[in-house]
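Question (not urgent): is this output format expected?
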Amino acid sequence: MHIHLDLLGGISGDMFIGAMLDCFPERIEKLPDLMKAAGFADLVDLQCKETNDGVLRGTLFKVVAGTDAESHDHRHYCDIKEKISGSALDSSTKKIALGIFQLIAAAEAKIHGNDIDKVAFHEVGAWDSIADIVCAASLISGSDVSSWSVSRLPIGKGQVNTAHGQLPVPAPATSLMLEGFEFFDDGIEGERITPTGAAILKYLDPAPGIPGGAFLNRSGFGFGGKKFPGISNVLRLLVFDTDQTVGWDSDQVLQLEFEVDDQTAEELAVALEQIRALKGVIDVVQFAVFSKKGRQSTSIRVLSIPKIEQTLIEHCFTVTSTLGVRRQLTTRSLLRRSQLVVRHGGKDYRVKVAMRPGGLTAKVEMDDLSPDTAVRHLIEESALKQFRESND
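Got this back:
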């Protein structure tokens, strides 16, 4: 399953949960038990109702602090971490909720120059906001989604009231978490992405486009509480089924291409190693070509995750002499694979097992094998046997 997030109005924790529940209404009845497991049953009330703004129909979700909730709305990150870790939530929901909070805490720590465990949450530290993140984490955990993508993000404008006073939109912590995402300005005033919404996006790490081989199954809308002129304040979810019968997976990668004809082989080799070392780069290849004036040149092709596009292009311009870079998003097909460790002759060997249409194949990592090339087939056969036994 693949889910595309379309930020028509923006995204907040409530909007994300509302959109997920609009697509998967069967999950609504599980939320009270979720709050009991989290220890929030007497601290918050969950409200979920169908909403129509005259243009679109969707789900409005809201967490309201209960009558037994403490009055103060700020808590330290370390206290929230302890509360979630010690709860009866399932391990996957705990991991996701803690991951989302860690992203917010890291952003706040960097902005205020504090140690992360000393970060005090204000708006996000209220019980209703904590429950918001736990609900979102549970829906992510139980959704069986294999990949996520997102539209461009509306940047908003103006100021927002916070415990630190008025801050520009998007708020500093929100901006920090959304570095690398593509924004656009539709001219509409107001906060469009909350810190919780930004942390959810950051955690999901969505691609900018929908992968090939995806078929639309359903859609849903999660409403925000604010009203914006001329648009419905909704987050739209598009839920796609991915074809799992073909035996391989698909995703989108960024492909950059350029030529170099005025850089020495030694300099270019160093430059390409620097590009290859950049986090998010998948592969770098080069091949000889003849370009203008009959010059022998080198053509470069770089594959990377789409999210690092701007950083990668800047790096290419910095370390090579090229004056232009061609770019495109392309869909690739990926064989499903596993990496095993085989013990042979007192030494560990890493072996990659690939699930090809014609059957399983195994390949020992050459760095581990050399100079023991004579034992290659024994190790690969051992890896295939180990893989089959573990998957029976």
